[in-house]
Write a structure and sequence with these properties.
It is a single chain. By secondary structure, the protein is α/β, with parallel strands linked by helices. The chain has 13 helices and 19 strands. The two termini are 21 Å apart. Bound molecules: guanosine-5'-diphosphate, 6-O-phosphoryl inosine monophosphate (IMO) and magnesium ion.
């Protein structure tokens, strides 16, 4: 059976922590989309781990971890991240890590181009992570890139990279910020034999696992509002991060999917550019940012912060159809006298209530937000293990979210540590 974990908002909801917790009970943990733009921090047994390319299930010694074909693979990051978790004492990580030969490579060339493109956009840039994710997926879609399978089995894979480099030079002019194509090809050749033992035919591997009845957990990357189709386009990532992306990026038997879990932060954050209706530029935003330690794991940028937006969360549920939710970081709200929640948007010109969720980033950046104000609980929730032990106002907050979205909140995060979670 398969369980899928997906982000409800703009990423960084705490998917990694839930994935870590649920991984203890599965045979396989897999990634289907994204790449090294992800940053999942897990605090386990006093140690903090940052995952980017690799699945968070690696922390559990009996879990096999798969990087599925929908992920764009940056080979040097694969090895540096593996070395860094091994240095922190993760055992047998090499034997438990597999990567699909169908993964398209995310090259250093793509990262150079990502930054050049952002530079061209100037003030209207996307605020990408600068890791080359957009160019990597674009060159997969336009069929110019190299797959892991090509690196392993095609001696002429370098010609494709040279052709890509020539194309980018025509587009951007100059020397592509000093990028050295021959050095990148050489570097990849040197990785070839090191990569071979990790490489699998994911279709065969997962078919066999599913036939044996193994439990599979899929760790989502990014989130619904960063999805290339359903997100706040163009301020999104370059792939499908919603349910459909998991099906396209991993060979799952859809009949065996038993649960889709949405991870929802108790307030909103966003890194990079783009509309954010509940963003707070004053004390509330600063307080959420500071108490929540809201800094990007991948780029170290300060995350923009604001109140929970149930309009976008409802839309996210309409796209992903969550079976249950993990509400995270409830503890960050512990010291607020009052808490606000967005329950509707009004059109900025007509003042009429907007139905659905605007497709235009411009309109979304101008909507007027209708808030419901709730009483804060002014008490510590960290470490609470039972719903009934939460302060009454915190219980009301959770129940209000559940009722508004029509989805049960099954887990509540009350602190960063692995054990700081309440299961209902
Ligand atoms: P992801 O990208 O969705 O995996 O989330 P990130 O790891 O980027 O960001 C979530 C951050 O919040 C991490 O630093 C987690 O350790 C932390 N975190 C997760 N759940 C909780 C929680 O319930 N309370 C608090 N205070 N921190 C949490
Ligand atoms: P996790 O998995 C938060 C954002 C970037 C930028 C936009 C496009 O940790 O939730 P990209 O480099 O993907 O082309 O950037 O998407 N972004 C994320 N924001 N969490 C992430 O991942 C993100 N991955 C990309 O900040 O706005
Ligand atoms: Mg993150």
């Amino acid at each position: 059976m398969a369980t899928i974990i997906l982000g409800v908002q703009w990423g960084d909801e705490g998917k990694g922590k839930l994935c870590d917790i649920l991984s203890s009970d599965v045979q396989i943990c897999a990634r289907a989309t994204g790449g090294r733009n992800c940053g999942h921090t897990i605090v386990a047994a006093g140690v903090s781990y940052d995952f980017h390319m690799l699945p968070s299930g690696l922390l559990h010694p009996s879990t096999t971890n798969i990087i599925g074909p929908g992920v764009v693979l940056h080979v040097p990051t694969f090895f540096s991240e593996l070395a860094s978790i091994e240095a922190k004492g993760v055992v047998n990580a090499q034997q438990r890590l597999k990567v699909s030969t169908r993964c398209a490579l995310n090259l250093d060339l793509h990262a150079v181009v990502d930054r050049l493109h952002e530079g061209q956009l100037g003030k209207k840039n996307i605020g990408t992570t600068g890791k080359g994710i957009g160019p990597a997926y674009s060159s997969k879609a336009d069929r110019s890139t190299v797959l892991l399978g090509d690196l392993l089995d095609d001696d002429e894979f370098g010609d494709r990279i040279r052709a890509m480099e020539r194309g980018y030079k025509l587009r951007f002019g100059g020397d592509l910020a000093g990028y050295d194509v021959e050095a990148e090809i050489k570097k990849l050749e040197n990785f070839r034999e090191k990569l071979r033992p990790f490489s699998i035919d994911d279709v065969e591997f997962l078919e066999e696992a599913q036939e044996k009845g193994q439990k599979i957990l899929i760790e989502g990357a990014q989130s619904a509002l960063l999805d290339n189709t359903y997100g706040t386009w163009p301020y999104v990532t370059s792939t499908t991060t919603t349910f459909g992306g998991v099906m396209a990026g991993l060979n799952l038997n859809y009949r065996k999917i038993d649960s889709v879990i949405g991870v929802l932060k108790a307030y909103c954050t966003r890194v990079g550019s783009g509309p954010f209706p509940t963003e707070d530029f004053g004390d509330v935003g600063t307080k959420l940012q500071e108490i929540g330690h809201e800094f990007g794991v991948t780029t170290g940028r300060r995350r923009r912060c604001g109140w929970l937006d149930l309009v976008s969360a409802k839309y996210s549920n309409s796209v992903n159809h969550y079976d249950s939710l993990n509400l995270t970081k409830l503890d960050v709200l512990d010291t607020f006298e009052e808490i606000q929640v967005a329950v509707a948007y009004r059109h900025p010109d007509t003042k009429e209530l907007i139905r659905g969720f605007p497709a235009s980033a411009k309109l979304l950046s101008r909507v007027e937000v209708v808030y419901k104000t709730m009483k804060g609980w002014n008490a510590t929730t960290t470490g609470t293990k039972k719903f009934d032990h939460l302060p009454k106002e915190a219980q009301d907050y959770v129940t209000f979210i559940e009722d508004f979205l029509g989805v049960k909140i099954k887990w509540i995060g009350c602190g960063p540590k692995r054990e700081d979670i309440l299961t209902r």
